[in-house]
Amino acid sequence: MPYTNVFLQIKENLQIAYRQAIDSDERLDELRKAGHGKFVAIFTEDQGFTESSNRFLPYVQELVAEFDIMQNSTHVAPETLEKFVKKLATLLQTLQVFKLSK
User: Fold this and answer.
1) pTM of the full structure
2) Cα dihedral value 18, 72, 45, 34, nearest 10
3) CB 83 within 8 A of CB 48
4) Cα 49 to Cα 47: distance, rounded to the nearest angstrom
5) CB–CB of 87/63 below 8 Å?
6) Could you say which DSSP state residue 34 is in?
7) 66 burial class (0-12, 13-18, 19+ CB within 10 angstroms)?
């Protein structure tokens, strides 16, 4: 498979995103209990996600599902991979900003 090394890196980043999403979602629960965090979705449609949630984990799950499809495909178009990597980067950057905003 031509993207073996890229896929390994993506898998590592998805694992990081998953762990950070769990922590961030717990923090969002605390903020909601305190009367904050009254938003409908973390990302907008123009950021590439089809999911719409006020939690991070559903976005990670969307990316994992897309990644599974790519891994099982015999051919992955470079544009598809690029779009996926941009979404993953957006998620990781947002998680990082949220983590630092304590």
Assistant:
1) 0.91
2) -20
3) yes
4) 6
5) yes
6) T
7) middle
Residue 83 identity: K
- The pLDDT tens digits of the residues spanning 40-75 come to 899 988 999 999 999 999 999 999 999 999 999 988
Nearest alpha-carbon partner for 88 in 55, 64, 53: 64
Q: Could you tell me if 14 and 88 are in contact, meaning their C-beta atoms sit under 8 angstroms apart? A: yes
- Count of positions (residues) in the chain: 102
CA gyration radius for the chain?
A: 15
Helix 57-72 and helix 4-33, axial crossing angle in degrees, nearest 10: 160
Burial class (CB in 10 A: 0-12, 13-18, 19+), 85: middle
Write the DSSP symbol of residue 42: S
Instruction: Let me know: does 42 contact 27? Beta carbons within 8 Å.
Output: no
Six-digit token string for 54: 């006020």
C-alpha distances (whole Å) from 69 to each of 14, 38, 85 are: 14, 33, 14
Tokens of 75: 């051919």
